[in-house]
Amino acid sequence: MEKTKVFTIVKAVCASIFVCPGVGHAMLGRKKSGIVAFVIFALIAVVLSFHIYQLVQKSVSDLQVSGAPLEISRLMRIAKSALKEDPTVSRTLWELIFVYFTVPVELVLHELIFRKKSEIISAG
């Protein structure tokens, strides 16, 4: 494999990890794959944000109903315990992490395995 090809793959993987999942695919000319990876990542992030927002909102409303003063430290303790107990948040967080680290792995595997096959077929 050429040195410039390896550098391009490394640059694309770094872009997928440090910028946003899917950017590396677009850098290598796989724009549709990049858009799909980004949309999946963004949808999971939105779902996670929505669940966290709902839990914090519920914690604030519980404090207001109880008549206790709204202290930030108390609110943080209640929100943290609610986040730890909610299975949806932890599952969604794991899905987000899985997508975040799977996208660069798929990028490397595709470039190493499928590009070699297409190069052999076109050369033959």
Describe the overall structure:
The chain is mostly helical. The chain has one domain (3-123). The protein has helices at 3-18, 23-27, 31-66, 72-85, 87-123. The longest helix is centred in the last third of the chain and has 37 residues, at 87-123.
Please outline the helices and strands.
Elements lengths: L2 H16 L4 H5 L3 H36 L5 H14 L1 H37 L1
Helix pairs in contact: 1-5, 3-4, 3-5
Percent strand equals under 5%
Q: What summary fits the major beta sheet? A: none
Q: Give the low-pLDDT segments.
A: none
CA distance, first residue to last residue: 18 Å
The general outline is rod-shaped
Q: Using the CA coordinates, give the radius of gyration.
A: 21 Å
Quaternary organization? single chain
The helix count comes to 5
> How many discrete domains?
1
Q: What would the average pLDDT be, to the nearest integer?
A: 84
- Strand elements, count: 0
Helix fraction by DSSP (H/I, runs of at least 4): over 70%
Quick overview:
The protein is an all-alpha fold and 124 residues long. The model has no long low-confidence stretch (mean pLDDT 84).
Descriptive tags:
124 residues; mainly alpha; rod-shaped
